[in-house]
Write a structure and sequence with these properties.
The strands form two sheets. A three-stranded antiparallel β-sheet has the order 1-2-3, with no helix packed on it. It has two domains: about 70 residues, no CATH class; about 325 residues, Hydantoin permease (Orthogonal Bundle), CATH 1.10.4160.10. It starts with a helix and ends in a 10-residue tail after the last helix. It has about 550 residues and is mostly helical. Helices cover about 65% and strands about 5% of the residues. It is globular and about 80 Å long. InterPro entries: CodB.
Length: about 550
């Protein structure tokens, strides 16, 4: 028997879910752990939770804004290409998430290293918070416009106060049911708005033939302007991963095609977009068509029913925004500050941040911040897809995500920063034409740079041995007790702790342990060090 085998503690293995972990998962949703197959959702449950992203005034507004800038025809071409791109890429990403059960934060560890990956949940959380500010403000404006009286800050507080408790439960425990109940109301309300507008202002096909008065960006075709505008919402691909990790592998093809793929984006981008273009051309609004003007138009058109439609649409999408903001704040803070708090705390923290941002002159800097984050997201997606296609050194069909098996940083971090930095520079200093190409340029640099890093760069893994995965027959069915938290997690995420006589440790505790990573690196260095030659006669 090898010295490694004799020195390590015996594993405590179970083949049933730990009741304490299951109880915790009802609200935590394995935010810092891999999702075991026993916690995966059924088709309808996951579809209803994700369908929260279908309803938002934003989808109506962005389509109408693009159509007014480039004309209806080019806008629809760009939207069609966006549907194809989002549908195809999310088909790949959702199936990968179903197979691995990993969040964006955990998946990023393999691409950027143990420390380098900390940027991913930060960008993700900040973007989700900013979108929650947008969508929550729409509800507040609707309530203020219809009921009047109190200052808008009061209605901001009302919106945050009711939104935060809605996401205390996890995807399986609550969000699927809430959004399943509200979905018919959104569909009925939006249909009513279209009919109402036609009856009041007359039905006409003129909205299909809107022409741009001048090119939105000189030298950039209208359809390309429309398409790159939708690249600004590639954050949906990060959203996809954090939701699709709950899907069962046998349902992965269905979810890839319907829930997260082409069918979803046909409805979200194209159907919502057509309705937005129609309403913008039919219902008179003051100034440009914006989320605020939509509020005034819908409330003025439908009265209290319009307020209800806006409440349903924005409440549904904000459940996803607040949920993902909380899980990624938890992932970021647990890694950087090594603190573990209940996800409810991070949900409240996200609510506080959303409210404070609402009180500022948020639009003066929020759009720039979202543009910067959008470039980071596009570059991240390019790197993730390149990794899925080209990476060859992962075992068990998984990217390595356990802290004690990864180097501190990888060349992927430099690729990500260089690609995003180039896009930001083009957007900020290159003029309108360069800004239109900033996202595609970042994507190309991310894909090419990461492919080169995989081929030419140093390996990202620490080679240590002592892997608990080698000691069980089924890494997805065996549960191993962690010596730190005393809970059993699936063997997929377990490691041995060199700082504690090689006792088993879960991924969550490993990321928070101040001594674990240093001991893991020392063990790897010792394993790779050349052996001293034996002395003659010894």
């Amino acid at each position: 028997m090898s010295r490694e085998a004799t020195e390590r503690a015996e594993l405590e293995v179970s083949f049933e879910d730990d009741p304490r972990v299951v109880k915790e998962a009802a609200t935590e949703d394995y935010s810092t752990h891999v999702v075991p197959r026993s916690w995966r959702s059924g088709r309808l449950s996951l579809s209803m939770a994700w369908a929260a992203l279908f309803s938002a005034m934003f989808w109506l507004v962005v389509a109408a804004s693009v159509a007014s800038a480039v004309g209806t025809g080019p806008a629809l071409v760009g939207i069609g290409l966006a549907v194809a791109t989002h549908g195809g890429l999310n088909y790949v990403l959702s199936r990968y998430a179903a197979r691995t059960g990993l969040t964006v934060a955990l998946m990023s560890r393999r691409m950027f290293g143990y420390f380098g990956a900390v940027l991913a949940p930060l960008i993700f959380a900040a973007t989700a918070i900013y979108y929650a500010v947008f969508e929550g403000s729409v509800v507040a404006v609707a309530l203020h416009h219809y009921f009047g009286g109190m200052d808008i800050a009061f209605w901001y507080l009302v919106v945050v106060a009711y939104s935060v408790p809605l996401v205390f439960g996890g995807v399986r425990a609550w969000l699927d049911k809430l959004n399943g109940v509200l979905l018919p109301f959104y569909v009925i309300g939006l249909t009513a708005a279209v009919i109402w507008a036609g009856v009041r202002y007359g039905f006409s096909g003129d909205w299909l033939h809107v022409q741009a008065t001048a090119p939105a960006v000189p030298g950039v075709p209208g359809w390309l302007f429309a398409y790159t505008t939708y690249m600004g919402v590639w954050i949906m691909m990060m959203y996809t991963i954090d939701f699709a990790r709950f899907s069962k592998e046998r349902d992965a093809r269905f979810h890839g095609a319907v829930t997260f793929g082409p069918v979803f984006y046909l409805a979200t981008f194209l159907v919502n977009g057509l309705i937005g273009i129609y309403l913008a051309s039919t219902v008179p609004t003051e100034g440009g068509f914006s989320e605020v003007s939509v509020v005034y138009a819908v409330v003025g058109l439908m009265g209290l029913a319009g307020v209800g439609l806006i409440w349903v649409s924005q409440t549904r999408i904000n459940t996803a925004n607040f949920y993902l903001a909380s899980t990624n704040l938890e992932a970021f803070c647990s890694r950087l500050f090594k603190v573990r708090l209940h996800r409810t705390v991070w949900t409240v923290a996200a609510g506080v941040l959303v409210y404070l941002l609402m009180l500022t002159d948020v639009l003066s800097y929020l759009l720039t911040a979202l543009q910067w984050q959008g470039v980071f997201v596009v570059a991240w997606v390019g790197i993730a897809l390149t990794h899925i296609v080209l990476a060859e050194d992962d075992r068990d069909g998984l990217p390595e995500f356990r802290p004690g098996r990864l180097r501190l940083m990888t060349p992927g971090v430099l690729v990500w920063l260089a690609a995003a930095g180039t896009g930001i520079a083009m957007a900020e200093f290159g003029g309108p034409t360069a800004a239109s190409w900033s996202a595609p340029a970042s994507l190309a640099l991310a894909v090419g740079g990461y492919a080169a890093a995989l081929k030419l760069g140093p390996g990202p893994l620490l080679h240590r041995g002592n892997d608990p995965r080698d000691e069980v027959d089924d890494i997805w069915e065996a549960r191993i007790r962690c010596h730190v938290c005393d809970k059993h997690y699936v063997a997929v995420e377990m490691d041995r702790d060199p700082s504690a006589q090689h006792a088993a440790i879960c991924s969550g505790c490993a990321a928070e342990s101040p001594g674990f990573y240093h001991a893991a690196r020392a063990e790897s260095a010792e394993r790779r060090a050349p052996k001293a030659p034996a002395l003659k006669g010894a």
